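Data availability (excerpt). The following record was deposited with the supplementary files.
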Amino acid sequence: MRLSSVIFFAIFLAASMCCAQSAAPTAHELAPEHIFFNGVIYTGVGFAQDQPQVVEAMAIGGGKVLAVGDNAEITRLAGPKTALHDLDSAHTLTVVFPGFNDAHTHLGGAGRTKLNVDLTGVGSLDEMLAKIKSFADAAPAGHWLTGGNWDHTLWAEKVLPTRQDLDRVTGDHPVFLDRIDGHISIANSAALKAAGITGSTVPPQGGTIDLDTSGQPTGILRESAQDLIYKVIPPPSPTERRRGDELAIADALSHGVTSVQDNSDWEDFLVFEQMEKERALHLRISEWLPFKAPLAELIKMRAHHDTHDQLLRTGMLKGFMDGSLGSRTAAMKTPFADDPKNTGLPQYAQTELNRMAVERARAGFQIGFHAIGDRAAAMALEAFAQPGVPRNARNRIEHAQVVDPDDIPRFKQLGVIASMQPNHLLTDMNWAQDRLGAQRAAYSYAWKAFDDAGVPLAFGTDYPVEPVTPFRGLYVAVSRRNESGTRTYFPENKLTRGQALYAYTQGSAYAEFAEKHKGKLVPGYDADFILVDRDLYRMPVQSIPGTQVRSTWVAGEKAYSGEAKP
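Predicted structure:
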């Protein structure tokens, strides 16, 4: 045997024998639980250098990888109870990769969208209204209709819907449906009435209520103004919340995601906690807490659950600097090219942001700021530069879609992670240059510029803003092309496959302080891996989005089988 491939297994055997309090265990009691052989197994070693290590076989047990190497040296570790998995038994290609770690999700929101009005991908206002009507017709009288994920930039006319549009199909149901980015929503008249919103309502800081020519609400609420309605919507029942969360988790596992860094409601975290107690939680979750919550409340929430729990724990604080490009609420240093009087909606004054960041950093919290526009990113960096905010806290900027090139070196100087979602470009490239202008667009979604500057990258999907599948993100990260391959967006910022895979696995693990046990398939690391139907490293780039997951394993147990899609 090669010492490099089986050393951990030898240590595991020795430690087990030394610690035994009775007779030494027999060999088969210490044998791996599973051995995978005759395969193409990417360990993750060498991804960052684009020189991936590939082995034939892997042994796992106790939730960890025990050994990797060639078929002969690994299969000889098997005992009578070891399950042997021949990866070439059907003579069809099955390739193993480390499980994906999605660095930015909203499981709770995804689950509720699945249970409510799901408008993902609707191609016109008429199609949107038809779907809403079908839900309204089937719902009990007066029941709130929520959900959303509509995107008017997909429509030929690209005009925002109005409350009058919704009123035609919703009857007595209050309706509140968010746009796909979550930064603007549409309400019907019944929902506006329930929230007491009129033409004279003053929106909260950082929000706006769109008015028509007569001074009355159009139904569009932007950014913090959405909270005026959210606070009057009845919360989902415990049963509804649990079912939605289960659906979102199943969706993630079915697409090869074994870990998520998640921004959901506290009530969703309590659902995840209950699932863990029932041994029904099979996805690793690091749950973010709201940056704007009072510090005493944040400390109490952190203390609620073991922060060293590797399956479920609380993580960083999530704050919002601005909105989105699609809704023109991103905070920009100069106006939008297609809206010359608009520079977006910053959510904080800099002095207050700095004070809060220092206070929370001194309490030991990692901080991540949602920042889409270049002004928002600069504000976040300024907060991280304050005395009292440590450089080793792995603070993050989420999205970082448009960053002034002069600010990119500050990420490195301040130890800030760029947590980005390449799949956003698949949606945004249809209109991003119109919003930004050619010069500014050239440094948007600048993955390679960050990587070249030595800035750690962590990749995710922003699910359900985009589908949870990582394969769309991998495709666009290495191609900078739309899904049909007919349009290219500033290809100088594309990554290699190894760099993209690293950001989706080990980069994401680093962003949550888990890089010493997660993201690679080497001895001692978590046995979180996926079996897929194609070689993501060698296949034609255009075929990456069609990748099918055959099974997903978390802590050495099968969490999803492709034979039974959710």
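Summary of structural features: The chain has a mean pLDDT of 93.
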